[in-house]
Write a structure and sequence with these properties.
Layout (H helix, E strand, L loop, with lengths): L2 H25 L2 H10 L2 H29 L5 H17 L6 H11 L4 H37 L4 H23 L1 H17 L6 H23 L2 H19 L1 H8 L7 H15 L10 H14 L3 H31 L3 H9 L1
């Protein structure tokens, strides 16, 4: 991602934040908002921030576990820096597409061979996607009734989001266990899209796709040979998702509310994430906030607008701020960005 695109996405995120604040004061009376803020319990708000820190820590732990397998002398501080910079770029790019490429760049800068960096990142992605899919299945089994009872119109969006997440891991599993049939199906689809003029350079696309599938297949073999690593990363990922989804519950407690159980509240957060998965905007701007209000309307009542702002700041804007700070610090300390700046000026 070039600097112009990065600045544009940051501007979009900034505008979205201003709009969210304006919306808050438009929907609720300023005096009511102030009273709600004053009534919030500081300890729980601090705990909500702590949950986000734990989420980032577990993200770094997972990356470090697999990084140590491919580069034994890799340092945890480098894993943490790479994770935080990835969080930053995930937030400011559509479909969180900028995180992995920039993480690969920094892992290489930290001394890891490119092939090893890709292995670490892709292995982590495969495990995260698998655990997220299982997590979503459990949530749908136990709390889908909440959607049908309170937000029936949102059900198709939840299902679509679930299908998107499931399709990714199913495709990866098919590649792992049914490699030849999956490759043939992929070739057929690409050639079909070429015949109806949706894509060009069919042979080039197939060549690129084959190299990508080969890389994912090799990563499945890498994980398969390390069952202890697999189990550890699955456990940490499940904890990571629970902590992240539980932030809304901590905010709920901060306002002294009661009557709704932990599982229902984290399930609503999972539904929001499912819907956000297929929105092609940085951080699923608009869709994340809107679906949060709809799912948590009954739970938070009069506090729903303020809780949306707090939740969004902690889970999205705070990641941008923290990730940007880490990126600036690492670049200044290590001079990683100097070559790129010189290149841009010469162009």
């Amino acid at each position: 991602m070039n600097n112009k695109s990065k600045r544009l996405n940051l501007i979009i995120c900034g505008i979205a934040f201003v709009v969210m604040i304006v919306f808050l004061f438009f929907v609720d009376d300023p005096k009511t908002i102030w009273n709600a803020i004053c009534s919030a319990k500081p300890l729980y708000l601090v705990l909500a921030v702590a949950c986000m820190l734990v989420y980032w820590f577990l993200e770094s732990v997972n990356l470090h576990l697999v990084s140590k397998e491919v580069k034994p002398d890799h340092k945890f501080k480098d894993s943490f820096s790479t994770s935080m910079i990835g969080q930053y770029f995930n937030c400011i790019t559509p479909f969180a597409s900028g995180g992995q490429p920039i993480q690969a760049y920094y892992l290489v800068k930290f001394g890891m061979p490119l092939g090893s960096a890709l292995t670490a990142l892709l292995s982590k992605f495969i495990i995260y996607q698998a655990v997220l899919t299982v997590y979503s299945v459990v949530i749908l089994i136990f709390r889908l009734s909440y959607v049908t009872e309170t937000n029936g119109l949102m059900l198709p969006l939840v299902i679509i989001g679930f299908i998107v997440n499931t399709a990714v891991i199913m495709g990866l599993l098919m590649l792992a266990f049914f490699r030849k049939p999956t490759t043939k199906i992929a070739h057929f689809v690409v050639r079909l899209l070429g015949k109806i003029h949706i894509i060009k350079d069919v042979d080039e696309k197939i060549k690129y796709m084959d190299s990508e599938m080969e890389m994912y297949y090799e990563n499945f073999l890498f994980i398969k040979k390390r069952p202890v690593l697999l189990i550890k990363m699955c456990i940490y990922t499940a904890l990571q998702l629970t902590v992240f989804f539980g932030i809304s519950y901590v905010i709920y407690l901060a306002f002294g509310l009661e009557g709704w159980d932990f599982l229902t509240i984290i399930s609503c957060q999972a539904f929001v994430s499912m819907i956000s998965a297929f929105v092609p905007l940085p951080g699923a701007l608009g869709a994340a906030e809107g679906s949060y209000v709809l799912f948590y309307g009954r739970i938070f009542g009069d506090y729903v607008s303020l809780s949306t702002v707090i939740w969004r700041f902690l889970t999205f804007y705070l990641a941008i701020i923290a990730g940007m700070a880490v990126s600036i610090y690492i670049n200044r300390k290590s001079g990683f960005g100097e070559n790129e700046k010189v290149k841009e000026k010469s162009e």
